[in-house]
Amino acid sequence: MSQWNWLNAALWAAKWRDLEKEALEIANAMQDPEARRHMVFVAESYGLLAERAEVRRDRLAESTAASGQSWE
């Protein structure tokens, strides 16, 4: 069961990283400094979510490996 949790965390980490990249691209294209600042904040928030998901992914991967569970 924990391998599915690991996979789920990995998928969410990738999703948050993609959204972070997209938000930064949008921010860089903005002319209005205030709007740009808000969009950078959104991108940074996605980055924090990605970091949390990556930590969870790594913790679950270690837990699964330590328990001797198969990845298959």
Overview of the structural elements:
By secondary structure, this protein is mostly helical. Helix content is 86%, strand content 0%. It contains two helices and no strands. Helix 1 packs antiparallel against helix 2. The model has no long low-confidence stretch (mean pLDDT 90).
Tally of individual helices: 2
Which geometry do the CA atoms define? rod-shaped
Order of helices and strands: HH
Helix content: over 70%
Q: How many individual β-strands?
A: 0
How big a fraction of the residues is strand? under 5%
Low-pLDDT ranges: none
Estimate the mean pLDDT confidence: 90
Summary keywords:
single chain; 72 residues; mainly alpha; 2 helices; 0% strand
Give the secondary structure arrangement, pairings included:
Layout: H1 2-29, H2 33-66
Helix pairs in contact: 1-2
Brief rundown of the structure:
With 72 residues, this protein is mostly helical.
